[in-house]
Amino acid sequence: FAGIGASASFGYAIGGQGVTTIEKYPFSSDANAADVGDLALGISAAATSASSTHGYAAGGSTSTNIIQKFPFAVDENATDIADLLGIMNAGAGQQSSENGYSSGGSDGPGTPFNIIQKFPFATDANATDVGDLTQARTFVTGQSSSTHGYSSAGYSHPLNLSTIDKFPFSSDANATDVGDITFTNYGGGGHSSANNGYHSGGYGPSNRIYKFPFAVDENATDIADLTVARQRLSGSSSSASGYSAGGTPGGDVIDKFPFSVNANSTDVGDLTQSRLDLRGTQG
Questions:
Q1: In the predicted model, is pLDDT for residue 244 greater than 60?
Q2: Is-above-0.85 flag for pTM?
Q3: 167, 103 in Cβ contact below 8 A?
Q4: Which of the residues 48, 108, 149, 155 has the least number of beta carbons within 10 Å of its own beta carbon?
Q5: Which residues contact 37 (CB under 8 A, 6 or more apart)?
Q6: CA dihedral angle for residue 10, residue 213, residue 258, residue 49, rounded to 10 degrees
Q7: Contacts of 268 (CB under 8 A, 6+ apart)
Q8: How would you write 202-238 as a 3-class SS string?
Q9: Does position 161 have pLDDT exceeding 60, yes or no?
């Protein structure tokens, strides 16, 4: 499905605090990232998603509601194509084959939301409200199966959360609580294989990689570690591996861990810039 699998050749690291850069790194070899463009508006902690042809960054920072789009076929800057319902910072991004999603997040003052928003890939159009998460939360992490979007963990003052929510792509509906990650957590990176969702890093503990199945509703298990304990990082996914890039500390490291076995990450390259609150996708 869109953005995951054999068609995805690169991972992308998008924005971050004080950064407008879009970087990409190859899945075919272990290598450093290259600067391939800039956002139309510099943002951090956007909700990111991918169609088969473009990457998307929705909202971010504490003052914007725009949806930005950039192409995979050529290295170009992003353009402002549409809007979310309102300012949305640190929401989770998901994608079906037809739509991008932004779930959760917070407004400028930091009030968390439970809204699930959807926008189409076929046309440049504003997002619509299509459902609610079971908990209002920000710094939530997103994963996608071929049929459902997942929102894991997050923060709702004063609590770190562990909930894994699931919502369908086939209809507009509220999410259901289908499990928990092993520890309460927020600010992690999200990854998706064909069969499992993954959550890496985040606040508490910050070096862990968690895995949960798509086929059944179950709690996540702690399966491996990152090379550097860190929070507020980006996640991307090839057909074979998950990638965790940036964050704090260790703000330029690109880690890779396999989907075929439960094994620790390896350091496979560096971003061009150290930063936190960047977000990732693949294409």
A1: yes
A2: yes
A3: yes
A4: 108
A5: 21, 22, 70, 75, 76, 77, 78
A6: 10
A7: 30, 31, 243, 254, 255, 256
A8: CECCCCEEEEEECCCCCCCEEEEECCCCCECCEEEEC
A9: yes
